[in-house]
């Protein structure tokens, strides 16, 4: 038995020497303490790359671990997939789509923004290596890019490199090759529902943050089911974006209301003539959570604390934006009354004597002034009224005019066929101007009624 043991030992030694000479691999006898294959310079670059691909395939194929940990992502993660052609498409598609959405929101709709300077300062004046995360509520399917484009000036939308990256579900935005090519060209990263927070799409977003980029995310994870009336709790993924980046990014929240009218649930074409109100909040800080990170606190607890703080801030902004939208709607409701009061004041301040019609604007209540400003309903002897069937109205006779006079139904501005304001205004005003003035008044009246119905 001793001889056999020595024989097996010598054979094992000879085999290890042959493996070393054949593959230039140093065989480690302490396999339990150190890995058998280590990158100590003996591998060729091709074999090393194949080994890393096998490890990535095995890691992606396995379900996500329930244990939370900090997963570091390099700046060059997935950089080989960003080809020159894709960057050229992004440089063209992003400015075109962004400016089109900007014109649609600010030209065909009305956007009221509060605190816009906070977003512009964070976007344009932050340090070079400081990344940016913007979070908002998710109401309609086109919140991004419509709301994002409405908040940015046109010259910023032309710089595709510094614009936002966003996340979208693979079953919606990457369901076929055409959609995949389009959404990749407008800087959208794919994420799979149910694959956890350690999937490839989240790693790609963290890689963009490590380069100092801008990532926009909806912490709720999906669209609101009640038309944006409430803000649901935030998911854990936004906590990983904040804590797993190399440098803690700047987090800017904003909340909007009114997008459910532009893009209702189930609609495929956005509406026009609607009002959207947006409020931008102050940056959210996480210094206290970073100080606790060194203590014995689980990683999942830190993710939950970050996401809950972001969700709480969004709910606060939601209350403020609803109050601002209600005040704005009330102001628009009272706008026609204010316009009529201003018009009456202007009419009183005008010196009508210069136009030769001052006698028709009398404020006295005596009988002489009333007779001077009353409508003269004269029936000539040679005038024969048309039958009621042809006019569709009842005939007006002398008794009717006397009845009107007895009840003091008159106009104080002297509208008559022979003279008065109408004939004099016709002399001073072009008919096309009168028609345009009437059209504008009609449009304002219809719009005010629509706003009142919305309220």
UniProtKB/TrEMBL annotation:
One of its GO terms (biological process) is phospholipid metabolic process. It is found in: Mitochondrion inner membrane; Mitochondrion outer membrane. Keywords: Acyltransferase, Lipid metabolism, Membrane, Mitochondrion, Mitochondrion inner membrane, Mitochondrion outer membrane, Transferase. One of its GO terms (cellular component) is mitochondrial inner membrane. It catalyses: 1'-[1,2-diacyl-sn-glycero-3-phospho],3'-[1-acyl-sn-glycero-3-phospho]-glycerol + a 1,2-diacyl-sn-glycero-3-phosphocholine = a cardiolipin + a 1-acyl-sn-glycero-3-phosphocholine. SUPFAM superfamilies: Glycerol-3-phosphate (1)-acyltransferase. This is Tafazzin family protein. It comes from Juglans regia.
């Amino acid at each position: 038995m001793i001889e056999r043991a020595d024989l097996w030992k010598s054979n094992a030694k000879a085999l290890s020497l042959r493996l070393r000479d054949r593959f230039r691999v140093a065989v480690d006898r302490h396999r339990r303490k150190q890995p058998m294959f280590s990158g100590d310079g003996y591998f060729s670059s091709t074999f090393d790359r194949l080994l890393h691909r096998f490890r990535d395939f095995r890691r992606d194929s396995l379900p996500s671990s329930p244990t939370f940990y900090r997963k570091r992502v390099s700046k060059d993660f997935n950089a080989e997939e960003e080809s020159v052609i894709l960057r050229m498409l992004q440089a063209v598609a992003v400015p075109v789509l962004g400016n089109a959405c900007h014109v649609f929101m600010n030209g065909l709709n009305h956007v009221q923004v509060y605190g816009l300077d906070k977003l512009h300062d964070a976007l344009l004046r932050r340090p070079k290596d400081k990344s940016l995360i913007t979070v908002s509520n998710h109401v309609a399917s086109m919140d991004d890019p419509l709301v994002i484009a409405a908040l940015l000036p046109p010259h910023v939308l032309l710089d595709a490199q510094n614009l936002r990256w966003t996340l979208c579900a693979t079953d919606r935005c990457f369901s076929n090759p055409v959609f995949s090519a389009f959404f990749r060209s407008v800087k959208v990263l794919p994420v799979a529902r149910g694959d956890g927070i350690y999937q490839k799409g989240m790693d790609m977003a963290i890689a963009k943050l490590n380069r100092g980029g801008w990532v926009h995310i909806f912490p709720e994870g999906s669209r609101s089911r009640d038309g944006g009336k409430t803000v649901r709790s935030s998911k854990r993924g936004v906590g990983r974006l904040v804590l797993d980046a190399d440098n803690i990014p700047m987090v800017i929240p904003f909340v909007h209301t009114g997008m459910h009218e532009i893009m209702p649930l189930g609609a495929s074409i956005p509406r026009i003539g609607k009002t959207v109100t947006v409020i931008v909040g102050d940056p959210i800080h996480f210094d206290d959570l970073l100080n606790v990170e060194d203590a014995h606190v689980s990683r999942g607890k830190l993710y939950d604390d970050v996401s809950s703080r972001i969700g709480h801030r969004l709910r606060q902004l939601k209350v403020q934006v609803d109050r601002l939208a209600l005040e704005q709607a009330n102001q628009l409701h009272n706008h026609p009354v204010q316009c009529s009061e201003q018009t009456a004041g202007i009419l009183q301040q005008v010196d009508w004597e210069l136009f030769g019609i001052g006698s028709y604007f009398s404020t006295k209540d005596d009988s002489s002034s009333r007779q001077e400003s009353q409508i003269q309903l004269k029936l000539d002897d040679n005038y024969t009224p048309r039958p009621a069937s042809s006019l569709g109205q009842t005939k007006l006779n002398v008794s009717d005019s006397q009845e009107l006079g007895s009840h003091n139904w008159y106009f104080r501005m002297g509208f008559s066929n022979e003279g008065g304001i109408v004939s004099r205004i016709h002399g001073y005003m072009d008919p096309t101007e009168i028609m345009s003035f009437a059209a504008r008044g009609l449009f304002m009246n219809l719009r005010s009624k629509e706003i009142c119905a919305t309220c």
